[in-house]
Each structure stands twice: as structure tokens, then as C-alpha cells.
Fold:
Amino acid sequence: MLKRLKAGKSGEGYIDVVVLILCAMLVIGFAVKVLPVFIAKHNLDTYATELVREAEITGQVGNATSTRAEILSERLGISPKVSWSKTGQIQLNEEVTVTATLKMDIGFGGLGSFPVELTAQATGKSEVYWK
Structure:
């Protein structure tokens, strides 16, 4: 009878399954918190690229780019801080650079918050000749 009790290891697999499920849930929880940061980075890159394209087409940084920034903020759901290398009229083939910065918070349960600053930069050349 004692040999049967010692030889029986029927409950050993349950602990392995519980640990495996716990690890899988932690990985899924981490992914749910981190993946939105990658999506926001992609949106920020798109924001900067389209904003500099507007400056290229209009040949200036001013009302048109501000209007475009508002439209992009509404459409993409982000409101980054925008800074330009130049303002006003930009002569033909002069470069202009836009830098968009967005702060995001990665928090994982009760472990605290981890602020992350995302930055996107785009450069373009004016397509307008100003007399």
C-alpha cells in the first residue's frame, strides 16, 4: 500500500499548469499595457510626416499648418507638442523640420507608472517660390 502512495504522482502536473497559466496571463497583461505605446508612436510618426507635407505644399509654417495640426489631432486622437525649425514663409528648396513630442504613461497594475516620451521628427523642402 505504501508503495502505491509513493509511486503515485498524479497531482504533479496541476502545479505546472497553474504556473504556466499565471505566466501566460502576466505576458498578456504586459502586452495590453505596452502595445498602445507602439500604436501611439506610429500615429505620432504619421502626424509629423503629414504636418511637414502641409508645410511643403503651402511653403509656410503658419495658419495652414496649425489648421492641419488640429485636424490630425482630432483624426488620430493624439495632441502632441509641436515645434518647427522655421516659421513664416519658406523659400523654394529650403528645409523645414517639425518635431512632435508626446508623453505616455505605461502603468502595470499596482507596480507604478513609467512615463515614456515619444518623439517623431520629419523634414521636408518647400515647393513654393516666394517673390
Q: What stands out?
A: The radius of gyration is 26 Å. The CA atoms of residues 42 and 120 lie 9 Å apart. The beta strands are 60-61, 81-84, 88-89, 95-107, 113-125.
